[in-house]
Every structure is written in structure tokens, then in C-alpha cells.
Amino acid sequence: MAKYTTDEDLELLAELGIDTAPAQIAQRTPREERIIAGFEEIERFVEEQGHLPQHGEDRDIFERIYAVRLDRLRELEECRNLLQPLDSKGLLEAATDAVFPTEEEDLDDAALLAELGIDTEAENDITQLTHVRSRQEIKAAEEIAQRTPCPDFKPFKPLFKQVQQDLESGVRQTLKYQDNAAVNQGDLFILDGHKVLVADMGELFVGDHGRPDARLRVVYDNGTESNLLLRSLQRALNKDKVSRRITNPDLGPLFSQTEEANDIQTGYIYVLRSQSDDPFVAQHRSIIHKIGVTGGDVKKRVANAEKDPTYLLAGVEIVATFKLANINRTKLEALLHKFFDSARLDVELQDRFGIPVKPREWFLLPLGVIEAAIEKVKEGTLDQYQYEPKTASLRRL
Fold this sequence. Notes:
Helix content: 25-40%
Order of helices and strands: HHHHHHEHEEEEEEEHEEHEHEHEEEHEE
Distance between the termini: 71 Å
Shape: extended
Radius of gyration: 28 Å
Oligomer: single chain
Strand order of the largest sheet: 1-8-7-4-3-9-2
Number of domains: 3
Structural class: alpha+beta
């Protein structure tokens, strides 16, 4: 039976010095709730991965977002004061062996999300954490998707690796998930920071509210899986404000010597050889090449090479071109430059105003190695190789 406190009881408690006033429940602002929610996402990442989120282009884009976010939360006194009592793992003070970002890699949340094609408003900076879901939304998503280790993850692992490479090279894109959009077997998504594959779909049946539903086997890129209902996955994708659909690869060629009627022309990869009379260039002319990508005519692009420090202030010879179709030019160029970074030519010139310029697209490479790397891109296997400067060849990892 419930017990009720009488006025006499209250008086007695007061005489004993016990405060009988009801405890005030602290109210948090929406901003504070989002800061806490953002921090809890970092805590979950540490629990799942066993290490602090780290910077670096080789890291998953969401790990890089968490790394940037943690840096900002540590820096802002307001955030530290709010989170200190909740920081049971000591993340705000923990030492990290993260590779700190270079000037080129120093991106905030918005810039990193932009790599996935996500539009962010200018006012949505890291201090706002507006893209972070509320704790209520996170809890709901966790209740929907209970994950267990995937016992046969081995065949799925290379698939996820290939998808990541396709995203980096532009072969695949990510699109905003449209509310309650169709989900089919084989579809790929980004949910809660992980790539998700709908590996299997059972027979359709009529579920709650008369809507079609099905039991799914969903595999995640971290080696876990869950048996979700179709409607449950759709709800989770709807609630995650940064969920994305990963597109299928374009069926058109990445490179072709002949144009098809339905090709989306995106330009050319070109390889140039300098005609400079500089003693070093002249001595190594056969292995000094510029690798670039253009959306226009290559000959027009290099027409004024003698006046442009980018072309070593000298004429150039076009030694190879590769037509691109249905591929992101900028990402492909960046991929090739990064792959051959160890062979990048370190040279500095002065432009016609006397300002020093360091061209970044020239490499000490035999032409055959460049052609071999482009062939690996076409095959989708470049991530399985690295350039070996000592032997001037590609070495399988």
C-alpha cells in the first residue's frame, strides 16, 4: 500500500534538519543536449573500436568527424564544464597517438561531411553540433538495431573496401536518404557512421498499419550484423539526419578510346613531358612527367605552357591521354597524386613577377608505371598496390 507523508511527518523531518523541498531537476538547453549527444557518439566509437578517433585521410570519414569534434570539445571551456561530470572514460584528458592533420587535412565537420555530398548551412559550425542527433533519437535507433558479430564476415570485408575505394574515386556517390524510400536486397547505405549492406531480404508480408514489411539480414562494415525488419531499417535511416544511400557504380566505362552515345563526358587524364632546358630536367627528361586531369581539350590546356610555372615555364610534350567517362575528375586526380606522392618532384620556380612557385603535379616516374596505375584504377584494384620508388614499380600489398 502506498504511504503518504502527513504534515506532522514533514514537521518532524524539518526538526531533524532534513530538507523536504522537492529536488529541482536540472533542465538542459537544446544546445547542451546536442553537445552531450555528440560526445556520447564519440564514447560509443571508442567502445566499439578500442581507440580514440584519429585524423588522417586513410581514416573513415566519420572517424575523422569524431576526431575533429573531440578536439573542439576539449578546446571549448563551455563544453568541458558541461561534459566533465559525464566523462567516465576520461576522453577529455586522454592522450592520443592520432596523426594530427596537415594544413591540407585540417577540415571541420562541415568540410568532412561535404566529402560525402552533404549540404551544411554556414551557421552549422562545430560549436553548434546541429547535425548531431538528440539522445532520444540515438536511443530509439539503438533499440531498433541490436547488432551481433557477423560469423561469415570474410567475404563481405573486401566488398566494403571496394565500396570505399569507389566512393573516393567517384565511381559511386552518396545521396541523401529520402524518407521511407525503397530498400532492396543488395542496397548500400551509410547509417550511424557505418556502411550498411542489405545482404538478404525475406518474403514480403503485411505488417503494422497494413504496410508491406520483410525480415532483412543487414551487415555492417565493422563486422557486425542484425536481423531487422524492413520498416525498422527505414525508420533508422529516417531518424539519422546524416544517413546516405550509396549509389551503384555507373555501368559506363571509366576510360575509353571511343565514345558511346550514353557516355557522360568528364574529360581526360593527361601525361606530359617537359621540354625545359634546365640541366636536371634535360638529364632526366624521360622519367619526369606531369599527371593531370582536365575537362577540356588537352592541347588548349597546355597552349601557353612557356608562361606558366605549373608547366615549368617551358613547352611540353603530350605523351599519353586517357578519356574519362562517368567519373569524378578531381577525386581521380587526387587519388593518382596521392598514390605517387613518394615520387613527387621537389622543384621551385619564380613566376614572371618573381614570386616563388612550387609545381605539385610533376613526378619522377617511368611512363609505364603511370599507365600501370591507371590500369589498376580501371580494374578497381589500385588500393591493393603501392608504388615502390626503389624499383620504380607497383608492389602488391
